[in-house]
Amino acid sequence: MLKRADEGILDIPKAAGYLDIPEKRLEDLIERRLLVPNKGKYQQLFHFETSVSSIERGSVLYQKGNGKFELIHGFPKIRRAMLLEPAIKKHFINTEILCVEEKMNGYNVRVILFQDKLIALTRGGNVCPYSTEKVNLLLNIDFFRDHPDYVLHGEMVGPENPYVPKDIYGIKSLAFFVFDIRKKNTGKPIPTSRRRQLAEKYGFFQVPLLGEYKIEEATEAIFKHIKELGKIGHEGVVIKDPDMIIPPIKYTCSQSNCSDLLHAFKFYNDVGRDYLFSRVVREGFQSAEWKESEEERRARCLRLGESILNPMIETVLKVQKNEKIFDDVLIRVKNLETLEEFEDYSRMLGLEAIFSKPKKVGDEYLVSIHKINRSTSDKTKAMWNGDLW
Ligand code: ATP
Ligand code: MG
After folding, report:
1. Which ligand is nearest to the CA of 166?
2. Range of the domain at 32
3. Which of 84, 203, 205, 347 is deepest in the core (most CB within 10 A)?
4. Which ligand has the shortest distance to the CA of 252?
5. With the CA atoms of 145, 148, 150 and 152 taken in that order, what torsion angle do they form, in degrees rounded to the nearest 10?
């Protein structure tokens, strides 16, 4: 048994047996903090900071009261189609029908029942206190009691969102949209139709099903959806094998790419270069596959160029006027304890942010979070002071 002050508890020999890895390897993972217990009241929950054999990063391991282990697999990466037609052909072998769903733009959470309450795990495998409060308010707990071996996967979407605030879905605060149900321990997904049935039965919101298409007709149908979704600022689609045996792939709208860039280039020195570069490359592939006219191509160039340069120019000018470069987000909590936990959690993740005083509205509190993007501010300031890049 491993015990440390304020750290997790795990029966090493048993856990190693359950995971089918040598004890020494497990000890080493804990020692090197690649298998990390959550803080505070969730210290039985360990998350993987790296992938270990077939267990992906973000997976969560814990030992229940009866000594049995549970593994909540990390949500697998969804690969992207750059050229849709060839990608569909090559990826979906022996599939006749494809299920096309909207890809909603928020953040990914996995929900399970833990000690009589729901908890929301982020992509990395942490328990997010804000999302945890929300899922307990939003989701019917009966689903989890009736199906203890299922993990509910969904996108948290809406404007009062500390990670990806979006006001494009007509949601007042934050909502949870189911896109997957998977088995604990194996991570195996259930077929899309069964998932929709279950989600419907328990009254959950679900990501929109845009259509089911014969594979030969899918590309053209998806391009139509993409153009429509782009016009209303939505993100794109996820294309799925209805049986969920072949992994899904994603494809997104140019406008959503550009809106990511518009936000990212405001903080050009805080955002990873891969994030920026990959979005530029997508535009080239999409334009080529769509055989765009000169006029359409020019419109795309303008859209892309504006979304890169405009926010950057604004940033450089703001810093010249001694203004700081920041991002403001709004959250809404029922309990002040959640707020306190979320502040600690944000600090633990290394986020530099100032939380406003909570403002009481009805039986809730509104809090604005001022996220500081120091690297961009400092770099820009240095340039104005004559430093060289
Ligand atoms: P990755 O590609 O590794 O999943 P990412 O965080 O960059 O990583 P995105 O580009 O946002 O991911 O695309 C995948 C994510 O899309 C999923 O993790 C999920 O949170 C979200 N998503 C939204 N709608 C759906 C949907 N209908 N089906 C599956 N995932 C969806
Ligand atoms: Mg996303």
Report:
1. 2
2. 2-72
3. 84
4. 1
5. 40
* Within a domain: 109: no
Which atom belonging to ligand 1 lies closest to the Cα atom of 101?
27
For residue 357, being part of any structural domain is answered with yes
Q: What percent of the chain has pLDDT over 70?
A: 98
Query: Shortest CA distance to 171 belongs to which of 245, 106, 93?
Result: 106
Q: What is the best residue among 56, 78, 205 to mutate for testing ligand 1's pocket, by most ligand atoms within 8 Å of CB?
A: 78
Using only C-alpha atoms, the chain has a radius of gyration, in whole angstroms, of: 22
Q: What domain count does the chain have?
A: 3
> Which residues are 207's β-sheet partners?
none
**Is there a domain that residue 174 lies in?**
no
**How many Å apart are CA 24 and CA 32, to the nearest integer?**
12
Structure token digits, residue 345: 């959690």
Q: Are strands 175-183 and 205-206 parallel, antiparallel or unpaired?
A: parallel
Last residue of a domain, one of 43, 72, 101: 72
Q: Tell me, in angstroms, the distance from the centre of ligand 1 to residue 363's CA.
A: 33
For residue 382, report the phi and psi dihedrals to the nearest 5 degrees: -60, -40
Q: Examine the domain organization and report whether 312 and 343 are in the same domain.
A: no
Please name the residue that has the structure tokens 């996820």.
238
Q: Please, how many CA atoms are within 13 Å of residue 260, restricted to the half-sphere of its CB?
A: 23
Q: Is 114 in the pocket of ligand 1 (CB under 6 A)?
A: no
